[in-house]
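How a chain folds remains the central question behind the approach discussed here. For one protein, we set the task of working out the structure tokens from the amino acid sequence alone. The sequence in question and its structure tokens are set out directly beneath this paragraph.

_____
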Amino acid sequence: MLVKVRVTPSARREVVSVREPDILEISVREEAAGNAANTRVRELVAMHYKVPLKAVRLMTGARSTSKKFNVVK
């Protein structure tokens, strides 16, 4: 399943908003530097879909606020 994510790094609160079943808006506290925000977003996507972390893979958007993740159920 391909999931589109719009990320806001360095936010005050972590928030996961669902726009559609496969489109999420996520705010994370981590900064974009050092891949910290991508790692936290991946963890939040795994928790949202209730799958293990290894089932979530970043496909595109490693340096962008718009990302696509592959989630294997």
Summary: The helical segments are 36-49. The first helix runs from residue 36 to 49.
